[in-house]
Amino acid sequence: MKKYLLLFLCCGSIVGANAQANRDSLVIRQVADEILANGKAYEDLRVLTKTIGGRLAGSPQMVKAEQWGAATLRAAGADTVYFQECMVPHWVRGEKEQAKIISNRRDFIPPLNILALGNSVGTGAKGVTAGVIEVKSFDELEAKKDQIKGKIVFYNYAFKSNFVKTFHSYGDAVKFRGSGASRAAKYGAVAVIVRSMSHSTDNNPHTGSVNYDTTQPKIPAVAIGLQDADRLSTRVANDPSAKVYIRTMCQKLPDTIGHNVIGEIRGAKYPDEFVTVGGHLDSWDVCEGAHDDGAGCVQSIEILRTFKKLGIQPQRTLRVVLFANEENGGRGGAKYAEIAKAKNEKHVFALESDAGGFTPRGFMLECTPEQRAKLVSFKPLLLPYGAYDFDEVGGGVDVGFLHRALGTPMGELSPDSQRYFDIHHAASDVFENVNRRELLLGAVNMAGLIYLVDQYGL
Amino acid sequence: MKKYLLLFLCCGSIVGANAQANRDSLVIRQVADEILANGKAYEDLRVLTKTIGGRLAGSPQMVKAEQWGAATLRAAGADTVYFQECMVPHWVRGEKEQAKIISNRRDFIPPLNILALGNSVGTGAKGVTAGVIEVKSFDELEAKKDQIKGKIVFYNYAFKSNFVKTFHSYGDAVKFRGSGASRAAKYGAVAVIVRSMSHSTDNNPHTGSVNYDTTQPKIPAVAIGLQDADRLSTRVANDPSAKVYIRTMCQKLPDTIGHNVIGEIRGAKYPDEFVTVGGHLDSWDVCEGAHDDGAGCVQSIEILRTFKKLGIQPQRTLRVVLFANEENGGRGGAKYAEIAKAKNEKHVFALESDAGGFTPRGFMLECTPEQRAKLVSFKPLLLPYGAYDFDEVGGGVDVGFLHRALGTPMGELSPDSQRYFDIHHAASDVFENVNRRELLLGAVNMAGLIYLVDQYGL
Hints:
7-stranded mixed beta sheet; Carboxypeptidase Q (chains A, B); 2 domains; secreted (chains A, B); CPQ (chains A, B); 40% helix; alpha/beta; Glucose Oxidase, domain 1; homodimer; 22% strand; Aminopeptidase; metalloprotease (chains A, B); disordered N terminus
């Protein structure tokens, strides 16, 4: 290190810049060595997923996860750990959903594998039985609007296979889950079934939030697995007597108290400037929330642990935030931004990891062109660890609130997305589907970027 | 397309080059759409792994796999399909290996999970029982050379965690598997146990070939799982009475007949120039050989299928080669090069996929600087499909023979390597650990590179 210091003092700015890049590269190498050899993120994730499991806002598991988060941040060496209270929605799934095809034909028909969509109303104990209108687009819904009254609308839009980045497929298809119920209710539908947003090869249904349009009646909405969606489609096309029975006992209870869990390392030089890094602590109830978003939480904690372990003292205050209630409300992210604004805090950068714990490929960014140029200038230092793609515009849902409230530049880790929608919001989002090295390598790249932003600002 | 043609005719060479790049980009997009939506590689792999399974050279499964390869190439639309005979080694594992720690202490000790190394001699039915000398380097072996006579040498070198590209960890550690037996035999060891080349979190032993130095006695060599390696190490350090019993019934039979399986599309313009793409058809006996190297075989066949389906007529003859006996001999690759040389064939490029069916990151290349520059110039056309890393020097083992015999430029698909050594040469290399989209995306990048090399030569 002395050699570099000497060079820096003796020579002009170009050599100085090179020396600085060399020093940064050595620090990031040290960070990578520590995380890849001694990283705790994988073990932390095992505890979160296997001893707590699914942890939807308002559930007892949410409370346990908050306690886990605080304890884990303390163990990682945070200077301070605290809770930030916010009201969160409290939706409960209730009894396991039931669904089946009913037909005048005498053939055996296995039950349909469904999950109620988050925030959906239930059918009540009697369930709903009705004929099915299948549509593959909203245009087709409009064209069939006169047939819909009293029926179940089945949105059977196939997840597109030809986007290389699968989040584009999700962006393309998710409208049916989000607004399909209200658009069908407008024409008198009694329920909707939505083909899962996935190109998995299994039959797991994938849940996720429905967003009701308050001007329309709220009708039950469920997701269906891919194999069952194909089976239902064939049946509807060939059996005029076919009806579907759906029974969901989900309900919305009054809002309850949840918390963002926050751990900090106080900045040495600019303690009143903040660099935020986080994931969301809640997950859907039907899975372990390992990739979504246990991974983002443990990666963020790993950064703090590694900085402490290696004695890397940030200049700005580093805040690790485990956000409440991303999945069906976004209240944690909103509260964090609200308080930051009320306190007139200066936020330099906010990074989220909420796209799975898969092998990292880069970062999505949303900021000014100047800030982007600066962030992209760090690319050569991260390339050895797999981050090369800085082209996508975006940031995490949670830090998005801060971005909109304060204009804070934001980013999100971009892991490889090929496997993500196999497991997203489905029973298969479990610890076993996370690879230790991929998870840790994501943390390495995040730590590298956070270190550089802290050093140079934006 | 007409628009681009017009541009090309009207304007100068820069615009012409752009138009060509646009046309190429459209062709590769078409290739990607076809493979991602209709690709057969995953189903082909299911058949190979689930109906045939492990297929070591000389085994009955090798013969079945050759038949499968020919039938699958024909179904994919190859103009011609043929076999290229070569003699292959015939090593058989025999009865399941046994190993245990024997101690004067009365505590219960579970058996050790081991696999004989490929081409290893067996212990015979009585097995070998001896004290254990643990070493972590060849230097340590030399330092302990006087203690080794009559003992089992235990190479307990930990797979390094801090290489981001895990093949570097493999390159660093594999010497103990390759030459450890003969180096220990030199000092009178009776057997060797080698810590598996893996950073998996399970206890599967990972096999692979041992290379005996013919000037030394051949002694039995086995791989041990990671958890058991740690257990053995602790025992050896703390229990002076500890011995290990090993029984392996493997043996080398006389060489037998195997085949490279080859499918071609005849080149429209230069039928006597060849572009080779392939993987190796053999695999270790203890797994399904899904990633190693069923993936490379089905990806190579996928390219041929896609070109035929889309009517992409190569200018040069495209040869898909499913090589025989990569794992414990390399005889298929050697034979292919020998025949190519004897026939004085003109080989333009040879590409292999033998690093797993994981999400692609680029290509290793081994060729002249001019050829490399040309190959790297294709990068922008492949970047949208995930290939950005063209920096590593290398090519597949099989096409390496051609490279050395004829100087043919060669390459190898570089998939993400984080998961590879979890499953490499172990019982966990099964179909279930291959992701459909990752496998297909590898084929997309290979097809793109092959298309461009065929169009522009090197």
